[in-house]
Amino acid sequence: MSFAMSPTSTDRPAPTFTGKFAELTQDLLFGDIWQRPELSPRERSLVTVAALVALYRLEQLPFHLQRARDNGVSTAQLSEVITHLAFYSGWPTAASALMLLEQAAGEQQPVPQPAAEQE
Hints:
The chain is an all-alpha fold. 57% of the residues lie in helices and 0% in strands. It has 2 domains: 1-36, no CATH class; 40-107, AhpD-like.
């Protein structure tokens, strides 16, 4: 069973075996590190996605791809980051990440765009 940590994970009880790990994730990672002003949430998302792709950490990637989109990174920008990483972290890491991005983008509901103003 997959267990994704997030700032809203406290809304539901954490499995008892996660104990201190869940607490550190909630309080230190998301409660402190992600809140530091030196990097914006958007920048932190780009760094996190890049690290997860480069290290081939696919289980955590869908959560962070969505978080990146929530933080203002477009699907096209994520695709470009992953394509760029192919030359540094390897073709298989990028191919797998792009497949997950495509799946995540397909699950995402399109956001209605306001009609462009005509001049």
